[in-house]
Structure formats: structure tokens, C-alpha cells
Amino acid sequence: ETLTAVICGGGNAAHVMTGLASSRENVDIRVLDVFSDEAERWTKTLGADPLLLTVNHPDGTHDEVRGKPSMITNDASKAVPGASLIIFAVPAFAHESYFEAIKPYLKPNTTIVGMPGQPGFEFQCFSILKDIAPECCVVAFEGLPWAARISEFGRAVTVLSTKDFLGCVVIKGKSNVGPDPMKPVQYLLGPHPVAQIYHNFLEPTLNTKSIMHPPIMYGTWHEWDGQPLDSKPLFYQGLTAEAAELMSGMSDELIATAREISRKKPEFNLDGVGHLFDWFKLIYKDEIKDKSSLLTALQTNSAFNGLLHPMKETPDGKFLPDFTYRYMTEDVPFGVVVLKGISEIAGVATPVTDKVLAWSQKMIGKEYIVGDKLCGKDVATSRAPQRYGYKTLDDFDILL
Ligand code: NAD
């Protein structure tokens, strides 16, 4: 039987997923790209050729993988009918446009995959897809399976590295997608990463890495005098003690939130929620030189060597911090704000998160919190549960 899947997006992730999926046997892979004129450009650029994936391996060798989708379109009425699997491979800010695009054509028992999902994916999915979402299977990966860069738009992409394992959530609801909804997803991904299923959506959400970038930005820039710099500062190697302390404090607040939710609602098993420092030591055990604290672990992780702050160049060759970069514009509304919303519903105070959020929202010109309450006008464009009408922990039951 042919596996018909739609890959949504047109960036790095969508290129890799399209190439990999199309290289498998017995598949019909369709690309849905609703952004600007990308679908048309991609179709023209590719012509009759397959997409080329260069997949790098840790030992320095590489493979070439080729695959050709059956269509690349901006028209969901062409892409969605007949598909059993829809994979979102776009940044979180673009998810809304894809939920809206697929909604009119979606049938029960479709599997919808966020790759990655990012905090709030489930709230948004169940809100936009209302009646149909509980009849579908919703999967959300906690990260992207690969580090990847397009080398030639529409034609070639390089997979710099592939994760061995990747956590995901499966919300099967009332759907009837078969005993193992992950089987077709894993088939398209190939042997790696191996998908590891969390107990429920709150586990990866409360473990999110979205709490890393905003406190680092805070640490470096909250006392900045506004003057352009001669060079771009190091992002991790230049980490301040204050930033590491804030990051750790935010992680503590998420653990407190998890404890409180499990206490009030034991059906939410949140044993998998842990501290960022422990996760970090585990994942980068061979790369970190000094594991004595979160600060030193971040400063001495060779995987982060040379990474710089996102900066904009001025006409005279100097640099200003770029607060429009995804470290702020993605990790705040689709990260920290969602977490703040969950803690608030759980009744857990979050003074450290509030401190970072109050500064971050100012830098991106938004208002999410007022004092320590998530009631600012821009909650309406975030993925906080409050935006979608979730008020109590019982409201989360539908996502179990
Ligand atoms: P990307 O920057 O390549 O995405 C760009 C694409 O997003 C565009 O090509 C377009 O298709 C779409 N897009 C842009 N603006 C849009 C708009 N206004 N409306 C609709 N669509 C729009 O992103 P990516 O590298 O593919 O990453 C996808 C996700 O994976 C992100 O959340 C990213 O943080 C995460 N991630 C990426 C990598 C990586 O190596 N690329 C690694 C880890 C995590």
C-alpha cells in the first residue's frame, strides 16, 4: 500500500524531510508550501530532477540521498486529500498558517506531526482544528531530527548531523490510526533518530530548551548602553554568571510546576521532567570540559565553540544586537510565554521567569505579562494556553 504524506514548509527542515521521505519505496510525497511564491519557485528550480540530500556522518564520511516529491504546491486542496500523514517542518510562527490551510480538507484518522512541535503546538492544533483534532492523531517532536542547511534552494540540502534519539508526544485521542501511529513516521525518517515517546505533552513542554536563549540575551544585553560594538560577542563562551543563574532558576520553576501538576492531577505522569543542567551533562557528556556548574558547562561545551550573538551590522561596520532573531521572537511567544501560562494555571509563582520575560517582551515590543500576571494584550498572538481558553488543569485532559 502507498503511504501518502504531505510535508509542510519550504525551509531547511522541509527540504530534508521531503528528500528523505521521497527516497523511500511505496510513497507519494507532496510538498505544501504556502509561503509567498516559494512553491512555484521550488517547482521551477527542481524541474524534472530529484532533490539531493548530502548526509554527513560523525566519522567524516557522507551519503547522498535522492528523492522527488510528486507535487510542490501552495494549494492545500490538491495536497491534503488522500494523505494519511501531514508533517509540519517549519518554524513555530508558521504553524498557524498551515493549520488553517489544511483544516478544510482534513479527514479523521490523519496523523499530524509537528517536527518540531515546540511549546503550545498542541493547544494551537486543538483550537484551530476544533472538532476534527480529537479524531486525528497528533504527534509533536521536541526538536528537529537533524541540523541542516539548504545549499541550493529547491535542489540541494546538507544534513550536518542526525540525532540518535528524539523525544515526541503522541496524542491518539479518538482516532483509529492503527496500533502504532509512529510506524509510518519512523519509516519516512529512517533508522535515526529513534522516536522516544513521552508520557504526555506536558513532559517535553516543561523540558523545553526554549528557556536557554532568552536568559542568555538578558545576561548580555540588559545593561547594554546602546552603543554599537566592534565585534560580535560569543554566545555561550561569553555567558555571564547571571544568565546561567536565571536559566537554572527558570528550569527550577518548571520542575516546581511539574510537581504541582502531578500532585493535583496524578494522571499526568511528569517523572521525565528534569533540570536543564542534568539534561545538558547527559547529552554533551563528551563535549563539556568543566561540568562543575551550568555556567562552566555552557562555557566549555566544544559543540558551542565560536557561536556568536545574533547581530546586525551598521553601515560603518559595527554591530548591534538583533532582537528580531528567533532566540527572542520564537523562544518568547512560542516558548517562555507558554510555560508562564502553564505555571499560572498550575498556581505556581515564577519570579525568575517573570524577570526574564519582562525584559524580553520590552526588547521585542510586546506585552505578555503585566506584573506577574499573564494578561497583556499580546498573549493573543502567543501560544499560551490562556489564548485558547484553557483555564484549569482539567482543561488539559483532552490532550492526554
Ligand atoms: P527555516 O528558517 O529554514 O524556515 C524558513 C521557512 O519558513 C521559509 O522557507 C518558509 O517556508 C517558512 N516561512 C517563513 N516565513 C513564513 C511566513 N511568514 N509564513 C509561513 N511560512 C513562512 O527553518 P528550519 O531551519 O527549517 O527550522 C525549522 C524549525 O526547526 C525551527 O523551529 C528551528 O528553530 C528548528 N531547528 C532547526 C535546525 C536546523 O538545523 N535548521 C536545528 C534545530 C532546530
Notes on the protein architecture:
It is a single chain. The chain has 400 residues and is of the alpha/beta class. The chain folds into two domains: 3-197, NAD(P)-binding Rossmann-like Domain (Rossmann fold, 3-Layer(aba) Sandwich); 205-399, N-(1-d-carboxylethyl)-l-norvaline Dehydrogenase, domain 2 (Orthogonal Bundle). The chain contains 14 helices and 14 strands. The chain has helices at 12-22, 38-46, 76-79, 95-102, 121-128, 182-189, 202-206, 213-221, 241-264, 276-283, 294-299, 326-329, 332-346, 351-363; strands spanning 3-8, 27-32, 51-56, 62-67, 71-73, 85-88, 111-114, 137-141, 146-152, 156-162, 165-171, 194-197, 311-313, 319-321. The strands form three sheets. It has an eight-stranded mixed sheet with strand order 5-2-1-6-7-8-11-12, with helices on both faces. A four-stranded mixed sheet has the order 4-3-10-9, covered by helices on one side. A two-stranded antiparallel ribbon has the order 13-14. Helix 8 (213-221) packs antiparallel against helix 9, helix 9 crosses helix 13 (332-346) and helix 13 packs antiparallel against helix 14 (351-363). The two termini are 31 Å apart. The structure holds nicotinamide-adenine-dinucleotide. Nicotinamide-adenine-dinucleotide (NAD) is lined by residues 9-13, 33, 35, 38, 90-92, 94, 97, 116, 143-144, 147-148, 326. Nicotinamide-adenine-dinucleotide binds at residues 9-13, 33, 35, 38, 90-92, 94, 97, 116, 143-144, 147-148, 326.
